[in-house]
Design brief:
It is a single chain. The protein has 7 helices and 7 strands. By secondary structure, it is an alpha/beta fold. It has a single domain, classed as Nucleotidyltransferase, domain 5, CATH 3.30.420. Strands 3-2-1-4-5 form a 5-stranded mixed β-sheet, sandwiched between helices. A two-stranded antiparallel ribbon has the order 6-7. Helix 5 crosses helix 7 and helix 6 runs antiparallel to helix 7. The longest helix has 25 residues. About 5% of the residues have low confidence.
C-alpha cells in the first residue's frame, strides 16, 4: 500500500487574506513522505507538476488537521485529482473525536514521543518573506516526520498522549485503529468531520 504523509506551509496567514478559509491562503512549501521509496520530498508551488504523481498513486494519505486545512488548500491547485476520494487518516480529527479537544501536533507528539516541531507557521511565513526557502523545507519535512512517527506509534499502540494544560498530567487517548489501513476506510472530507468547522493553521501553535 502506497502511503503519503504530507504537510503544508503557507506564504501568508488568515489575517493577511481577510478570510478564515484555508483555500484562500497560498502554499509556500509542501513536504511529503512516500512509503514506497522511504524518502522525504519538498516542493515549491511552482514545482507541483512533479508532485502530483505521488498523490495520483496514493492508497492512503495521512495528515494532522488535513481535513479542514491541508486538503482543501491543496485541492485548489488541481482539478485532475479529487483529493477527498483518497483514503485519508487525519490524526487530529481522530484525537478530537475521542477527546472533544483541538490538540496541536507539538503537544501530542511531545508528550507521546518526546518529539517536537522545530518552529511554527508564523516563523515559516517570515522565512518566506525573507527568502529563506531551505529553512521552510527543513521545518516542513520535520513536521512530516513527526506526523509519520506519531501515526506509526498510534497504529502500533492504539493510543497517544497529551499533557493537560491545567493539571500538567499526562493523559492517555485510546484510539480505534482497526480500520486505519483498510482501503475502504476514508474519513477524508466526509466521515466523522464537521464541515462547518473553521480551519486551523495548526503550525501556529
Amino acid at each position: 500500500m502506497k502511503t503519503i504523509v504530507f504537510d503544508i506551509e503557507t506564504r501568508n496567514i488568515f489575517s493577511d487574506v481577510g478570510s478564515d478559509r484555508a483555500e484562500d491562503l497560498d502554499i509556500s512549501v509542501l513536504s511529503l513522505y512516500d512509503s514506497e521509496t522511504d524518502e522525504y520530498y519538498s516542493f515549491l508551488q511552482e514545482d507541483f507538476e512533479k508532485m502530483w504523481p505521488f498523490f495520483e498513486k496514493a492508497d492512503l494519505i495521512i495528515t494532522y488537521n488535513g481535513i479542514h486545512f491541508d486538503v482543501p488548500l491543496l485541492q485548489k491547485y488541481t482539478d485532475k485529482i479529487n483529493l477527498s476520494e483518497i483514503n485519508h487518516i487525519d490524526i487530529f480529527a481522530k484525537i478530537r473525536d475521542v477527546t472533544g479537544k483541538k490538540l496541536g501536533l507539538d503537544g501530542v507528539a511531545g508528550t507521546t514521543l518526546n518529539l517536537n516541531k522545530s518552529a511554527n507557521g508564523l516563523q515559516a511565513v517570515a522565512w518566506w518573506n525573507s527568502g529563506e526557502i531551505d529553512k521552510i523545507k527543513k521545518y516542513c519535512e520535520q513536521d512530516v516526520k513527526v506526523t509519520k512517527d506519531l501515526y506509526d506509534y498510534a497504529l502500533q499502540n492504539s493510543k497517544v498522549f497529551y499533557t493537560d494544560r491545567n493539571s500538567g498530567e499526562k493523559v492517555e487517548v485510546k484510539l480505534d485503529v482497526s480500520d486505519w489501513e483498510n482501503k475502504k476506510e476514508n474519513d477524508g472530507l466526509f466521515e466523522n468531520s464537521n464541515l462547518n468547522e473553521e480551519p486551523q493553521q495548526m503550525g501556529l501553535f
